[in-house]
Amino acid sequence: MPAASPLRPGHNGISLRAADRARHAIDRAMALDGSVLSSIFTSFDSGRIAADAEALDRDAARLEGPLAGLLVSIKDLFDEEGVTTTAGSAILAGEAPAGRDAEAVRRLKAAGAIACGRTTMSEFAYSGVGLNPHFGNPGNALDPLRITGGSTSGGSVTVALGIADVALGSDTGGSVRIPAALNGLCGFKPTQAAVPLDGAFPLSGTYDSIGPLARTIALCAAVHAVLSGTSPDNGEAVEKPRIGVVRGPLTEGLDEKVSRDFDAALVKLADAGCTLQDVDLPMLDGYGNVNRILVATEAHAIHRHRLDGLETAGDARVLKRIRAAETFSAAEVAEARALRAHAVEAFRALSGGFDAFVMPTLPTVAPLIADVEAEFDRLNALMLRNPSALNFLDGCAATVPMHGDRSLATGLTMFAAGGADWRVLALAQRAEAALA
């Protein structure tokens, strides 16, 4: 299993204490303006973080863990014992504290990671832009007037600002990859069934998955190993990988910067030894409507008993998306499930001829918050367009930065059919090196 503990002695023999790293993270967070801090975290208990780090320093067994001393911010839809899970919603703020950690959180802590604050998110994880009327709208790490992307909005900023090493996120339609790409980070969405969902507040049981955001793919891989309980298959290493370059609707309408960065990335991948071949994905026909029907239907079933309360205490944009389920017939839902199942199989068959596929993670750079407030439906759909296609296909996907400077970030997605998680991570790490 890959190890990523920052407490291991370096080449100079110096080792760090978990308490020192925790104090540094706390100092960075406390240096932020209060309004910025509250837009990133729903809860930041510095005493708890410091105490957990000090306990780790006294625990010889956990200090041997692969993630010992790693600071992980927790999206506020994962249960932590003794803490109320809000899922980004004011209506859940008065609920009883969780009785135990979510399984993903438990695995991270058992591996030596330290929970470093609970991060803001789109209400119930139901948008790709990251706006939240209850906790505020966190600003993009590269331009605070622009969106972070969602729904793991606060989590992305904790990593980009150096408060946390990793953000634990969920991904139903892009909620790990969108904020990772917009903030110049790496992010990994595993095969949907790879990481247990126990103790994670659901949006859609069909699509929900759990993955990390970090500065490097290597760190994402180390965290995924712990979350999934799996290890890399070194036999999957490919000397000259066959990469399908997605053409068609997912690479149309790109803004100038994304188009330029994507073209440059393809050249670098070819120079790095990849064999590139243009490919269409006809099985994606109608995927947006299928996703809309299935996610809304499952979200409506989860929130049916609180819809009246959400009329006054919820995000109206999210409630509108949930209530859309009331317009779908049972026949439409059944047809949507059948269409998705057929598409998953068709994509798996096509994937036999390739080691992975690539496309831009998003068609544009981060929009301005003011523009998203004014045109939520259009811009939310635009942010979800590319990433949600891979949830529809039950694929696994990693995003790596493909912008070459400190201007607004763009991302390159490497993806494959479900089950190819470690191959995608290996090829994404190769792409990350080529694009650096």
What is the number of independent domains? 2
Helix content: 40-55%
Name of the CATH homologous superfamily of the largest domain: Amidase signature (AS) domain
Q: Low-confidence parts lasting 5 or more residues at pLDDT below 50? A: none
How many H/I helical runs? 16
Largest sheet: 11 strands, mixed
What structural category characterises the helix and strand content?
A: alpha/beta
Structure characterization notes:
- Residues 25-421 form the Amidase domain.
- GO terms for molecular function: catalytic activity.
- It comes from Neoaquamicrobium microcysteis.
- This is Amidase.
- By secondary structure, this protein is an alpha/beta fold.
- It has 2 domains: 18-234, Amidase signature (AS) domain (Amidase signature (AS) enzymes, Alpha-Beta Complex), CATH 3.90.1300.10; 236-287 and 324-435, Alpha-Beta Complex (Amidase signature (AS) enzymes), CATH 3.90.1300.10.
- Helix content is 41%, strand content 13%.
- It contains 16 helices and 11 strands.
- The chain has helices at residues 18-30, 34-40, 46-57, 60-63, 103-110, 153-160, 177-182, 217-228, 256-271, 287-303, 307-313, 316-323, 330-351, 369-374, 376-392, 421-435, and strands at 41-43, 71-75, 114-119, 166-170, 186-189, 210-214, 242-246, 275-279, 356-360, 396-401, 411-416.
- It has an 11-stranded mixed β-sheet, sandwiched between helices.
- Helix 10 packs across helix 13 (330-351) and helix 10 (287-303) crosses helix 15 (376-392).
- The mean pLDDT is 96.
